[in-house]
Every structure is written in structure tokens, then in C-alpha cells.
Amino acid sequence: MSFASEIADIARVSRAASSARALARARDFIALTKPRVMSLALFTALVGFVLAPGHPDPLAASIAMLCIAAGAGAAGALNMWYDADIDAMMARTALRPIPRGRLSRGEALVFGLVLAASAVLILAVATNVAAAALLASTIFFYVVVYTMWLKRRTPQNIVIGGAAGATPPLIGWLAAGGPFALEPFLFVAIIFLWTPPHFWALGLNRAGEYARAGIPMLPVVAGRVATKRQILIYCVLLVGAASLPWAIGAAGTVYAVASGICGAAMIALGVRLDRSRYPDARAARRLFAFSILYLFVLFTALLADAAVAARWPA
Predict the structure, then answer these.
(1) How far is it, in rounded angstroms, from Cα 283 to Cα 198?
(2) What is the DSSP string of 116-169?
(3) Which of 99, 175, 261, 283 could covalently link to 131 via disulfide, CB atoms 3.0 to 4.6 Å apart?
(4) Distance between CA atoms of residues 52 and 29, nearest Å
(5) In sequence order, what DSSP letters do the residues of 9-64 get, joined into one string?
(6) CATH entry, 181-314, from 3.30.2420, 1.10.150, 2.60.120, 1.20.120
(7) Nearest of 240, 233, 137 to residue 186 by alpha carbon
(8) Global pTM?
(9) Rounded-to-integer distance, Cα 118 and Cα 126, Å
(10) Band of residue 280 on the pLDDT scale cut at 50, 70, 90
(11) In which element (H, E) is residue 82 found?
């Protein structure tokens, strides 16, 4: 092999290594955005957008969804920036990019701020100021009110902080030009009431980790029995709120059937968890897993009813 060939091989290896490092960093920045949480926010925002009256421009609709996704991702990145110390103490979060040293806190902070500002400004230009203002308020509430203030101070952190995660349907509705109306606020209420049983079911099986990290989650402060009772109460409130879109005519038969069946299952799982004796990890895992399916089915049913109404208008 000639000297020139060796140099060329070394250059190819160097380029491949550089590409691999760049790809790994890109994956780490994506991980900062909490893709699973982002996807849930994006999906519920899409439902609000579709159900809003009017027919927005397809380009504006695409930009709006990208901005809402970016806003949710920015909130996740800023959450990881601030919580890097406690993330390192918990098995569930210890492999995140900052605790593992793959990204610095400074990089996460700049990334989150730039992403948040870009999302809000572009949404304002592409749609309207109301949607952009609500997106900005949601990011602020999640990062400052929930992450910096409530999370480490009160066992009601999830309840109050859940308000931030509940707003995407309303943001989507406003981005589509919809007026302030009862329907999107009902969608917000559903997600708001869904949040405590979803996260407390997870918290029951992570109570030791939260205690070591100094986070006063309800299972740590009030104990398992009280937490399970609160989960059941919120399950009942959630199912009641989920029936309201159909009751006021904002949803049709598909939604009524889906919410009825899934609501019965949600309450049944809540009752089973409440009555379970320690160790109750399996019952908590079942409720946690089903709660994800529950919310997805509800909002998918809203889209299905909208499609039926468009295909066969009354």
C-alpha cells in the first residue's frame, strides 16, 4: 500500500469517527427534548387544532405543530438542565445526557432557551399572538413554577405542575384560529386530571429513588395507602371529566363508546390498586401503563368523530 493510500484511509477513518461523534451529539440533544413527552403534547395539540372551527392553511398548520413540538422539547431541555443534580441520583434518569457527561448543563441551557424563543416567535408569526403567548406561558410555568419552585417543595407538585402539560390542546385550538370556548378547556381538564394518577402510579414504584433525591412526591410524604386512595379519587374525577365532551355535543358516538369502556377499565384498575396490599408494584405498573393507552384512545376517538362528522355531516 502506498503512502498516499494510507493517508486516504486515515482520512476516511477520521471522517467516519467525526460523523459518529456528531450523530451521537445530535441524539443527545434530541434526548434533551424528552421525545415521548413531546409526542404526547404534539398529539393532543393536533387534536385541538383539527377540532377547532375553520380551515387553516396547511403550511401554517405544519409550522404550528413544529413550533408546539419545539416548545415542548424546550421545556424538557430546560427541565433537564435544572434537574441534572437529582437526575444523577435516580435510576430512571441517570442515563440522561447531562448526568452521563455527554452534554454540559450550559449546552442544555442554551439549547433550551434558543429552542423556546424560536418556537414562540415563529408560532406568533405563522399563526397568532394568542397561541404563541400561551405556548410561552406554558414553557415558563413548567420550567419556573413546576421545575424550579414546586417540584422540590410540595407533594402536590404533580397536581399543580400538570397544568403545564395540559395546555397543548388549547394551544393547538388557538393556533388554528379557534375562539376561547368550552371544548378545548374540557380537553385541558382531561389531561390535568389524568396527570396525578399517571405519575403517582409511577411514583409508587420509584418512591425510594425520589426519597434519596429529596423530592417530596406524594408516596414519599403521605405513604402508599394515602397515595393509592388519591389515585382512585383522581381516576373517578378523570372519568367524569372525560364524559363531558360527549355530554355537551363536542364529541360523538365513537368517543362516547371509547370513553365509557376505557373509563370503566381505568376505575377498575384504580380500585384494584387501592385495595391491593404491599407489595403492590404490579397493580401500580398496570395502572401506569393503561393510563397512557387511555389518553391516547380518548384523543384518537375525538379525531375519529371529527372524521365521521366531516364524511357524513348531520
Answers:
(1) 13
(2) HHHHHHHHHHHT-HHHHHHHHHHHHIIIIIIIIIITTT-TTHHHHHHHHHT-HH
(3) 175
(4) 33
(5) HHHHHHHHHHHHHHHHHHHHHHHHT-HHHHHHHHHHHHHHHHHSSS---HHHHHHH
(6) 1.20.120
(7) 240
(8) 0.92
(9) 12
(10) confident
(11) helix 58-82
- Write down the CATH number for the domain with range 29-180: 1.10.357.140
8 Å CB contact between 284 and 227: no
For 183-242, the pLDDT digits (tens) are 999 999 999 999 999 999 999 999 999 999 999 999 999 999 999 999 999 999 999 999
Please report the DSSP string for 183-237 in residue order: HHHHHHHHHHHHHHHHHHHHHHTSHHHHHHHT---HHHHT-HHHHHHHHHHHHHH
Residue 179: C-alpha distances to residues 47, 93, 150, 262 (Å): 15, 39, 31, 30
Instruction: Give dist(CA 188, CA 199) in Å, integer.
Output: 17
C-alpha distance from residue 94 to each of 45, 84, 90, 218 (Å): 30, 9, 6, 21
> 9-15 contacts: CB < 8 A, separation 24 or more?
none
Instruction: Quote the pLDDT of residue 35.
Output: 95
234 residue type, one letter: Y
